[in-house]
User: Which sequence fits this backbone?
């Protein structure tokens, strides 16, 4: 089978590269692959395209000229076969698109979790998302397998406004999420949070977390294991940073969104993630657009059984709790809890 390894895929590609210039030949081949990929239909891909999230002509041109060609030019080999093989191994997005295209042509079933089902209720035709289908494909195939089945939009700064408070209400206690950021220079990047965001002074998360770039190039930066500084969220503190951060150190994060919404930074050389450059066009960036996506099946709700006297209204409304945390009133309802019999 062509896709058993990258060498086989490279050998197969060489049969379709008649031009003398390898770069021009790969560009021609890539356009054909993208066009075939675009024709692929499935309930999951239709759920995105019906909401106006296609592969646009502009995206196709950027993908081929900026991403594929740049990554090919950066790849060395003793001959064309070795060079293409190394390039495909490195460029997972092209490999995935080629795989889907050929499965479509030869009527081979594609794994259901290759493209997630879009389950959001927002009208993305009226308020477009930052992402296109290529972005979705690339990120989804970097996620843990149990989170690849469905995505739901929780927060969009274009829908909910440029508000850190609004974002907190949509973000906390929602299970694993994606943070997607577009800066004022149209660089798109973000991070995968492997567990629910919680307000507090300590880092949370685990080595499943990663950071990534989507434009102008697509790259994933996985955990080094050097430290556990994966997820940080804090507000209304005098001596601690206030905002959302992933990776790095306090005041020097791999990705940082300030509580004074609209600005952030991305520090190169972040020790939490492998070989990470600055994700944004400049270290300190202005936020143009931000989104938060929930991944996989929604987390199970806690029981609302009224006989459970250990819970307050804030336990049921994470948004209200997050907002109260911002004004330092997050635990004033603690005294209203009933005391279980065994604690008398």
Assistant:
């Amino acid at each position: 089978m062509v896709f058993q390894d990258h060498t086989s895929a490279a050998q197969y590609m060489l049969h379709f590269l008649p031009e003398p210039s390898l770069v021009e030949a790969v560009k021609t081949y890539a356009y054909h692959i993208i066009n075939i990929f675009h024709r692929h239909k499935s309930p999951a891909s239709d759920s995105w395209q019906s909401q106006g999230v296609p592969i646009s002509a502009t995206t196709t041109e950027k993908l081929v000229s900026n991403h594929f060609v740049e990554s090919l030019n950066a790849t060395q080999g003793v001959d064309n076969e070795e060079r293409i093989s190394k390039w495909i191994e490195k460029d997972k997005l092209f490999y995935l698109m080629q795989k889907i295209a050929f499965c479509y042509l030869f009527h081979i079933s594609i794994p259901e979790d290759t493209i997630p089902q879009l389950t959001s209720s927002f009208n993305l035709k009226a308020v477009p998302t930052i992402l296109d289908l290529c972005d979705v494909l690339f990120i989804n195939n970097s996620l843990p397998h149990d989170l690849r089945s469905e995505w739901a939009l929780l927060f969009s700064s274009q829908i909910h406004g440029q508000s850190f408070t609004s974002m907190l209400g949509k973000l906390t206690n929602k299970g694993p999420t994606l943070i997607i950021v577009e800066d004022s220079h149209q660089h798109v990047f973000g991070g995968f949070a492997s567990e629910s965001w919680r307000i507090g002074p300590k880092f949370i998360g685990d080595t499943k977390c990663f950071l990534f770039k989507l434009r102008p190039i697509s790259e994933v930066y996985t955990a080094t294991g050097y430290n556990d500084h994966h997820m940080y969220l804090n507000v209304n503190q005098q001596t601690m940073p206030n905002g959302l951060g992933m990776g790095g150190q306090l005041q020097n994060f791999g990705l940082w969104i300030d509580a004074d919404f609209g600005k952030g930074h991305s520090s190169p050389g972040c020790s939490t993630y492998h070989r990470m450059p600055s994700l944004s066009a400049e270290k300190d960036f202005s936020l143009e657009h931000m989104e938060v996506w929930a991944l996989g099946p929604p987390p199970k709700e806690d029981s609302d059984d009224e006989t459970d006297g250990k819970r307050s209204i804030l336990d049921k409304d994470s948004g209200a709790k997050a907002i109260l945390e911002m004004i330092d009133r997050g635990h004033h309802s603690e005294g209203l809890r009933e005391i279980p019999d065994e604690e008398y």
About this structure: The longest strand covers residues 284-295. The chain has eleven helices and eleven strands. Confidence is low (pLDDT under 50) at residues 303-318, 329-344. The CA atoms of residues 124 and 284 lie 29 Å apart.
